[in-house]
Fold:
Amino acid sequence: MTDLIPELKTPTAPAGTGRVRAGMAVSRVDGRAKVTGAAEYAAEIAAPDLAYGVVVSGTVAKGRIKRIDTAAALAVPGVLDVLTHENRPRMRANDLAYKDMTAPGGSPFRPLFSGEIFWSGQPVALVVAETFEAARHAAALVLVTYEIDEHDTNLLASLDKAYKPRPMKAGFTPPSSKGDADAEWRDAPVRVEAEYYNAVEHHNPMEMFASTVVRGADGHLTIYDKTQSSQNSRWYVSHVFGLGKDKVTVRNPYVGGAFGSGLRPQYQLPLAVMGALHLKRSVRVVLTRQQMFSFGHRPETWHKVKLAADRDGKLRAIWHEALQETSRLEDYVEVVVNWSGQLYACEHIHLGYQLVAQDRATPIDMRAPGAVHGVHAMEVAMDELAYALEMDPLALRLKNYAEHNHLEDKPFSSKELRQCYLQGSERFGWKDRPLAPRSMRDGDELVGWGMATGIWDAMVMVARASAVLHADGRLVVSSAATDIGTGTYTVMAMIAAEQLGLPMERVTFQLGDSTLPLAPIEGGSSHVTTVGGGVHGACDKLKATLLKMAQSQAADIFKGRKINQVEFNDGRIHLRGLPDQGIGLSDLLARAGKERVEEKFLMTPQLLKQRKYARAVHSAVFVEVRVNELLGMVRVTRVVSAVAAGRIISAKTAASQVSGAVVWGISEALHEETFTDHRLGRFMNHNFAEYHVAANADIHDIQVIFADEEDRIVSKQLGAKGVGEIGIVGVSAAVANAIFHATGKRLRSTPITPDKILMGDHEVPVGR
Ligand code: MOS
Structure:
């Protein structure tokens, strides 16, 4: 039985929202709770007898702890204890216990397991006190001395240490090649060749990572955790501490952004659990903004790309190799170069991908991991090729339009990219673009127009959902899904409401609790296809059951009728087109003497069918920049993002996903970079004063277009493909290409900061 869990404070659409259908723009159902503060985040959960944990972060990049002096910290009034590797509660020693649903190959970090240091900023102790203030003060008094080993955090100086990734994580396809790209490149009349580089970025969601562990009298732990999967965190805690499934519940009804940083349980979770187990009371641990820079990040990436074409623009060879940073602990891998093999029609493709291990925390997925950097390099190279050909960059893409996936020789399950190119360029006014750089000026600013193609996976995973119709006519649909701000609550309620023909305010979609029906991590832009498919399936089964009930309770009307001969409308089931020939659903339950009717559905991908197709979402991004060359300042004044992502279910939250991703793409192109002092092996600008994310003043006009597309291979139930990530892919390349068009300066590393604009053509500083 899946019923509403009151503690989750699940939002429902406000009265008057009314009937909805796929494609409508509905305001997010959790909006009011969020802006009024009614929505409680992991760090806001109250518990009687709550103790406060503050993390002590290590200060060296590599070595081991020689000594931890906790005397001064323990002497602070209110301090309950200081947990270190020497006195922590029992934890499993086996690596497998620390593997979560998204762990890459290798040996995951085990917080406070031993005195070994793997990166600067690694947690080395947890101070727990009666108050947050006492804990924070005491944390500053913990004295750690280290035995220091030599570290290496400089990717560009270590490119010669690259190796092929060892065990792969699920979802990673090592790149393959076809034809003879080297030979084609040698012989082709028009060629470009360049190196590209992308700096480290951090996710910086508004909400800091936090876990509040509420310990029940029976020892049961109810953990409010900032995570992209309550079930992933539950699994992790159970395995690390040897606690049965019934001893731990994890909840995440509200998450203030994550962007991939919450795909893996972060270290505050096991630390908070340690505190609760050690002290036998409730404990909360919240990371500071500085500590948000002390776990995974988007790894820095170096690329070499070579493109060759005939004089008419026909691509002869695509050659793309990338080296990417990982940690010593794990082979974190991203799909970086594979996109270059499926973007265009070409028979000679060479792709390569290798890792370089560094003394840093294992990188972690960040919105469109791999594609953001890989497509950047490829799409800037395509712009360079267009100029080598003296050809319009959009015309070059259309000339090489891939009707099928050339690398795998498979048809696409759906691909309306041509619509994106045409509608996007039309909306933008691309046809008026002069080809030559430096040909548009407005006052002190040079104006440039650039474009790029975007691509991302169309993924679907496995999920369960339950749909319960209550006697009072309310529908409650549940799955252990997550809403990291993406609109899950809204889109799932829309799917269920449309299915049952109910006004949206009579439907509640419940998520965010590990005891709810199985759901995957909210990642890979897959929640709509996966959880949405589950919701759709559960509602379908519920409708069939209700029809069966109608056939026995109101046989005169429904006997012998099939599901396609009836309609569900405003809480009634009736014969199609005949509203009077029916019965209220509440009456139906009352006559059957039932308080509730529940149906469950297991959503599984159509794997055999899918295998025959390449499955992707596509986009075309058009960007206008204005560059003040004297100051090196760039303003992105106009963006049109045209996206083909299957059927769009929730028009408003989908458009918000894309425009939000465009904002980040601009930020990635121009602003975001985490700097390392390689002498210390440490990220230095770990705060919002020095790590600049795009602010309101950096963002101007952004328009989102969705192409008309439907994909029943990826999503049999909904025809959808997912929009969470595609919006960021290609944006930085379009910005870089627009800067070239404005200034004639080809800048090959991101972010494109004012110093690079002032410097002019900018090669990648390998070996700096
Ligand atoms: Mo996303 S990087 O799949 O959370």
Summary: The first strand starts at residue 51 and ends at 57. The two ends are 61 Å apart (CA to CA).
